[in-house]
Amino acid sequence: MNTSFEPDQVRALTFDVFGTVVDWRGSIIREAQAFGARNGVTADWVAFTDQWRGMYQPSMHAVRSGKRPWTKLDDLHRESLETLCERFGFAGKVSERDLDDLTRAWHRLAPWPDVVPGLERLRRRYVLVTLSNGNVSLLVNLSRFAGLRWDAVLGAEPTRHYKPVSEAYLGTARFLDLQPPQCLMVAAHNDDLISAASLGFRTAFVARPTEYGPHQQTDLRPAADFDIVTDSFQRLAEQLGV
Amino acid sequence: MNTSFEPDQVRALTFDVFGTVVDWRGSIIREAQAFGARNGVTADWVAFTDQWRGMYQPSMHAVRSGKRPWTKLDDLHRESLETLCERFGFAGKVSERDLDDLTRAWHRLAPWPDVVPGLERLRRRYVLVTLSNGNVSLLVNLSRFAGLRWDAVLGAEPTRHYKPVSEAYLGTARFLDLQPPQCLMVAAHNDDLISAASLGFRTAFVARPTEYGPHQQTDLRPAADFDIVTDSFQRLAEQLGV
What we know:
Two copies of one chain form a homodimer. Chain A is an alpha/beta fold.
């Protein structure tokens, strides 16, 4: 894919968010621990966090396959949390309001340290947008919390399709009035980049080797010939010559 | 409508853009004059600009009524321009590329002087989004050009309905996961605010008495009992106590 890659032909950078921009795991572990302390319930909050994220892909499956009408990620997160309440033994011990607040922990995720200065530099030349499975209000709240500045919040909810369904990528390019090769997909996940590349997007793999914790086994290295391979948004800017 | 208005109950400010945020008329007159000089065609560019804007509401009518599938504003602007080329006698004398560029003059509109500092102040407390009939790429380019920072670019294209169709307002509130009374519609136009208020939005009328030029007759004063009446984004911030 990286033959004849010309940074000047790219007009917009489209960002995966969970894992690529923000450290969801560290943030959710901290939020879950505080939730436990506040509500007087104990659990292995690291396992709880990993299982919550483990339900992420399966929860979108019924929507992707069309078996279920469009349902935003906040609602899927909340449904998964109900299951975890049973599994971890605190169902009925916590108020609906506290469960709502814990669901909104996904609106309060910390960015990786290179992200804010990296985006500031990248936006001098490129249009920067989200291409995330997060819903708009989640991304708006998260971006205000983390200090992220986007030119537009796009992705699953505005296109009503979850990645890796093609329309999530193509509809985002269409909102920007760009052709896929004018868009550079930035992600820490091989499958996201391979899907984007198959539709003509340019691709940048940004390694996030601790996204899934200290023993991460997946996405440590690029699995295809992406246009750019790097490990921070600052170095991404350097490689693009910004 | 302004009984019991509490600024603390508002979470998001939803902005009309053309006329409220940017001086489309002054900007398009300048762009059209430069276009004429570049292409060696003469016309009354003030009349040309007023007639182009005059075709704005009629051009959306077929989409609003459902007679025509969703068509974004860039395409409507371009169709209106074709008609004006005939009317002003320069059809066939100008390249398609130059007509494309003139259509994109709507992506390069200057903000009123109070807008950039006013938005900076308002965003300390409120989520700021567009609720405009402009398409996403137009608003993204315009915002980069004018230095406007939004939390999200919403309105007609993401909801696929042109104001004043209810769904343009309600769909925008839904993207934000807010109820209408948590949204304050900010506009220089009575009809936009009356439509928003009828759906439960809070309303701020910001007078822009020269939007339509020195002899403007409409929208000089509020035509209903809006929650806030003012004449700049700075004073809007003051009235909201930001």
